[in-house]
Amino acid sequence: MRDTLRLDLVPVKIKNSTNSIGLPMDSDQALVERARGGDFSAFETLFERHRELVYRFAYQMAPRRDDAEDIVQEVFLRAFKNLHRYRDEAKFTTWLLRIATNYGTDRARMHTRRNTLEQQEADGALRWMTEGSQMDDPLTNLEQERRKQIVRNAINALPDQHKNAIVMRDLEEMDYEDIAEFFECTVGAAKLRVLRARRALRDEIVRTHGVDGGF
Amino acid sequence: MTHREEEILILLAFGEADENEKREAEALVANSPEAATFLAEMRSLNGTMPSLREISECQLTTERMRDAILSDATVSAGKSRKQKVAWLNWGLAAACLAAVSFAISMNGNRSAAPVVAENEPAVTSDVSLDEAMATNDTPTSSSAVRKYAAKLKDTKPLIVDTTSTVAPEQTREALTQVVNRPVRRSNKSLASRKPAAQKPSTEQVASMISLGTAGAVSNTVASNTGNRGHEEGAGGGAAMSMQATPNADVSAKAKEADAVVVVETSRGADGANRAKEVNQSELRLSG
Q: B64: nearest CA in chain A?
């Protein structure tokens, strides 16, 4: 509680002020500059601000809470160690998501054996028991859970490019500008990537669950 | 459906189509049941997406993040220190190796032996030898040996060890003993020498007796030994040429000189038949 209070006070204290190069003191770039200079509280602020975004992104790559939290921790650790490599022309969030993508890909490659079918089933059963649902009708709840699982499996079966496009646009509802920055392409190319990713997702569902896709 | 039609339907299903695309998609759905099915599938897919956004809350705290960064920094510092120590160790090892190799190379230059061609015997000159042996028995196949023999001819004897490049002391002593033995050499060539003495057969001995040879043959003569006669004595041409010749010669000489020939043979310890040298004292001339 005390920690939260302290962290909340920091932006308020420096609000509406600018640093020597004209950036708002609470902008990501300014915080990165301060963190580069050894101000660890600035990096903590960055962590608090973007933790949820990275966590949601990581959760789509490793749909287990503890795995996603490990990914988030590793992403921010790598970000802290490589702050000197961050270029200001890119968004800090884009840079973080790129780190998360690279680490998630490596991690998935390393943990392929661990993700056995039994673990996935046990994970699904546990989620069913722990999370529950907002819906009252058990049948509707079951059907919704089944569809969710089908789509999640299909997303995980996609290549990384398609998967990232789907996650960023359809799950995280990011702007096409940010997606274009992530992929280092134009906005039109980003739209095309998302379009192809959706078609690939539909084809994957048809391939595994038939023409109607169980929908 | 074409790819373009699919794209329009996807845009419509996800709510990203503009007015023109909307009209085009509606027309397509109205005319094609396949397009209608496709649109329904994509809308269902889009409707499922929000449920995927519901994830459990992140419980990663700032304290945990701070601890992770600090522990990583500690581990990194330890690693870098270990790496420094490792580099120091490797550097010391390399320096020691270089020093040892330098010392070895310097020693090798100081005690370099005279260059002898490959597969040629080593020449040593620390054993005293008979001068004649040194000059006559030196192998002539090696130019190096010939050169050393010519150089040492007037100074000191030479021994050539063809068995090894550096002869051990024992081998040298044994060679010295063998070489120092008095060896009587003949001026005759091997071709002009008489053939080796043949053992007289039993019939020949019987014929000798029957011919009335005055000579007495010792019990050991021509018994079972393959004795080999020595054709010459130390006295050269004046010495008696004594050998176990065929019976006819022996009997003839015995007749002429009335001599008694005693030839002793012995069998060596190793079982090989060897002829024992006949001393002058063992030759007894009757009369």
A: A73
The model's pLDDT over A3-39, given as tens digits with 9 standing for 90+, comes to 443 433 344 344 445 555 566 677 888 899 899 888 8
A1-114 maps to which CATH number? Answer: 1.10.1740.10
The pLDDT score that the predictor gives to residue A107 is 81
* Torsion angles phi and psi, residue B248, rounded to 5: -65, -45
ipTM score for this prediction: 0.70
User: Is B62 within 8 Å of A7 when comparing Cβ atoms?
Assistant: yes
CA distance B14 to B11: 5
Per-residue pLDDT band at B199 (split at 50, 70, 90): low
Nearest by CB to B62, which of A44, A198, A213? A44
Q: Tell whether the model's pLDDT for residue B83 goes beyond 60.
A: yes
Joined together, the tokens standing for residue B235 give 């006295």
- CA dist B229 → B195, B219, B265, B273 (Å): 10, 17, 10, 12
Residues B32, A3: Cα–Cα separation, whole Å? 61
- The reported pLDDT for the residue numbered B108 is 75
DSSP state of B270: T
Distance, CA of B267 to CA of A23 (rounded, Å): 118
Contacts of B49 in chain A (CB under 8 A): 151, 170-171
* C-alpha B166: how far from chain center: 17
Gap between the Cα atoms of B28 and B187, Å rounded:
127
Question: Do B62 and A40 count as a contact with CB atoms less than 8 A apart?
Answer: no
Give dist(CA A136, CA A129) in Å, integer: 15
pLDDT band at B130, cuts 50/70/90? Answer: low
The CATH classification number of A116-215 equals 1.10.10.10
Beta strands in chain B (DSSP E): 122-124, 159-161, 266-267, 273-274
Residue A44 with chain B: CB contacts under 8 Å? 62, 65-66
Band (B272; pLDDT cuts 50, 70, 90): very low
pLDDT of B281 above 60:
no
Q: Which residue numbers of B have CB closer than 8 Å to A's CBs?
A: 6-7, 10-11, 14, 40-42, 44-46, 48-49, 51-56, 58-60, 62-66, 68-69, 72
User: Low-confidence residues of chain A, pLDDT below 50?
Assistant: 1-16, 132-133
Domain boundaries, chain B: 3-50, 77-112, 122-180, 196-287
> Which residues in chain A have their CB less than 8 angstroms from residue B51's CB?
144, 147-148
Q: Where are the domains of chain A?
A: 1-114, 116-215
- Residue B58 has what DSSP assignment? P
